[in-house]
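REQUEST ID: PR-0412
SUBMITTED BY: lab tech R.K.
PRIORITY: routine
TASK: structure prediction, single protein chain
INPUT:
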Amino acid sequence: MPDILMPKPMQPLVERELSEKFTVHQPFKSEDPEGMIASVKDDIVGIAAGGVDVDDAYLDQFPNLKIIANFGVGYDSIDANACEKRGVIVTNTPDVLTEDVADIAMALLLSTTRELSAAERWLRAGNWEAKGSFPLTRGSLRGRIMGIVGLGRIGKAIAHRAEAFGLTICYHGRSKQDGVAYPYYPSVMALAEACDTLMLVAPGGEETKHMVGESVFEALGPEGIVINIGRGTVIDEAALIKALQDGTILGAGLDVFEEEPHVPEALRKLENTVLLPHVGSASQFTRNAMAQLVVDNLVGWFEKGHPVTPVAETPFPAK
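STATUS: complete
OUTPUT:
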């Protein structure tokens, strides 16, 4: 059976189903993980990857590697271009997490705009009885214009939900999309100037790092709301904290952060934020669907010569 490396723990479904068709090596269960990897490195032809940084140095360890099946739709932790040069295919898990992530995006928007987390803290602290009603919130969804950065599968699912709430939609991406009626803006800055609610669904990586910073917050203005369910590196976190502290924008709802799981204390102390520990796809239903797609990609590659969901950088068939 082909040898598969599972560097870190994954859903039980992955281990169970892969073990039926592959020899699965799990260094995290060994007292000497590095030694275990060294002992099987020449045999490894596939990697079931979750939370693993893959660069040239990592790839050098496995001369016979054919495929990396990533657990997650985002794969910025994997150097897909380096994989392409070596003939190593990379897969991800799109579609199956779209709806859950879009739901969380809207939950963050509602919670941030209407200050629901602060209202709950007020109630739990006994303030409703002791001090009276929670103060009226400045924010409301009425009349808001949502600018979506990254109108892919998840971005479109968010837009569909947002339209049902009566929001006006516009977007920015690498290029204007055919068949999309929403107004397109050629830059994040232009989008921010045209909206008051910025929904970030962009992938991570150097291309998008800190694309949302001080000037974008100023363009959003004092009623501005920022929601990020993409990647934490898209936002300049220090600039965001300052913008929230001095009232440059109204609030922010975040499910992702620059250096997870670290969240700056200054950000945690701010009352005009809603902060979640990267739970966008964290339902058993969705995580099991993602796990199954990891399995299906590896099985598809070795049994049929092609995976289910290869990423754009590595679309080639098995050799």
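NOTES: The first strand starts at residue 3 and ends at 5.
REVIEWED BY: pending
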